Amino acid sequence: MVPWLFLTPSLFAVSVMVLIPLVDALRRSFFSAVSNQFVGFQNYISVLGNSAFQLAAANTAKFIFVCIPLLLIISLVAALMLTTFQEKHGIYKTTYLMPMAIPVASIVLLWRVMFHRNGLINGVLSLLDVTSIDWIGSGAAFAVLVFAYIWKNFGYDMVLWLSGISAINPALYEAGQIDGAGSIKRLIKITLPNLLPTLFTVTVLSLLNSFKVFREAYLIAGSYPDNSIYMLQHLFNNWYSSLDVDKMCAGAVMMALIVFTLIMLLQKIMSGGDGS
């Protein structure tokens, strides 16, 4: 009884803020927003055949499969390097976490100054007699968005990796050294296998954070950016503006199912398929 008393406030908040809206979105996805009549899977068929949805889904999938592996590798390498600088550990961690403390509006202003057609980067390129690039209004916008996502989330993932590394029993490294294992062998045989639980946490959080990059993309390029960075969040925002609630709910349900399936699949792979 006591555990349930502690759980009640959070369970109530989650129910009001997440579960009830999710059930309502599921219900609305089977009804017409105009006549409120049951239409079965018609909304889902309409969404899947929508060219804007196909473009946004492909861009979102491409963004996730490019960004998350890059972010995981870069943050892990930085965390491993930081473990060798124990004395200035705190200074580096604070420095790398700074992007998360900067307001989004300031970040957007910074990106505009840097990546505008007449911005800093094109100014440097012109000094080198290199043709200016339309960073925001061309296919290069995808690279800018990837850079913004990694820059903002790099410090957070690095701290998670550091916590995982610090949880490894030092006796394992001492035993490895006694057996003559070098630094590379200790990394492969001790560090990486013991970081698998952390890998699951970091990957799931990175996946969820990848859906939050919309704010930066929206504020930089607006509701209809270059096709290369037109994400599902842009599409949902435009459907919301045009009151296509049925399409929006159907798309949201499919998106939630895909994210849930990815997390369950990842958990299955991390647990080695033993269901633990």
Describe the structure.
By secondary structure, the chain is mainly α. Helix content is 75%, strand content 0%. It has helices spanning 2-28, 42-48, 51-82, 89-101, 104-115, 120-127, 140-166, 170-178, 183-194, 196-210, 214-221, 232-241, 245-270.
* Shape by Cα distribution: globular
**Order of secondary-structure elements:** HHHHHHHHHHHHH
Give the class from helix and strand content and strand pairing.
Answer: mainly alpha
Mean pLDDT: 84
β-strand amount = under 5%
The total beta strand count reads 0
N/C terminus separation: 27 Å
Low-confidence stretches: none
Radius of gyration: 23 Å
Proportion of residues in helical segments: over 70%
Oligomer state of the chains in this structure: single chain
The major pleated sheet works out as: none
The total count of helices amounts to: 13
What topology emerges from the helices and strands here?
Elements: H1 2-28, H2 42-48, H3 51-82, H4 89-101, H5 104-115, H6 120-127, H7 140-166, H8 170-178, H9 183-194, H10 196-210, H11 214-221, H12 232-241, H13 245-270
Helix pairs in contact: 1-13, 2-13, 3-7, 3-10, 3-12, 4-7, 5-11, 7-10, 10-13, 12-13
List keywords for this structure.
276 residues, mainly alpha
Task: Summarize the structure in short.
The protein is an all-alpha fold and 276 residues long.
